[in-house]
Design goal:
144 residues, 5-stranded mixed sheet, alpha/beta
Length: 144
């Protein structure tokens, strides 16, 4: 089963997903947040998704940011909308910075690096990769 990662934003949301074996995390899409739940319903209807990993914004000291309550509300809504799927949050500190750095190091031009949708997709991928590493994912698609 796939695992879907969500880099939630009030305007747009970046998504990443594992392959069906749960080995590789890849950028999926960036969607307007107002359309996110409909997108997720459509996606989970055609793909086997075991659960969701949602990036939780934190300050450097681990305290909540101004965005944290928005993400917490979204997580509650996600759990209600998908009661048969597990939902976990994970620290998303530095993911946008890492996404920008990744784009820069891969030779992406300055104009393309300003594409906030691309940054959101890459951030979601970084969130998912980090979560998979911390959970010791070994291609089983299951948390170990």
């Amino acid at each position: 089963m796939r695992i879907l990662a969500i880099d939630y934003g009030t305007k747009r949301t970046g998504l990443a997903v594992t392959d069906p074996a749960g080995i590789i995390a890849s950028a999926l899409d960036t969607v307007p947040t107002a359309e996110l739940m409909a997108y997720l319903r459509k996606y989970t209807a055609r793909e086997a998704v075991g659960g969701f990993v949602v990036g939780l914004p934190c300050n450097l000291d681990g305290s909540p940011t101004d965005a944290t309550p928005h993400v917490a509300r979204f997580v509650a809504d996600l759990r209600r909308a998908f009661p048969t799927h597990w939902v976990e949050t994970t620290d998303e500190r530095f993911t946008s910075t890492l996404a920008q750095r990744t784009m820069h190091q891969s030779g992406v031009g300055k104009k393309a690096r300003r594409d906030k949708g691309a940054v959101d997709r890459i951030s979601a991928t970084i969130i998912l990769q980090g979560w998979m590493e911390r959970k010791g994912m070994h291609g089983s698609g299951r948390r170990t």
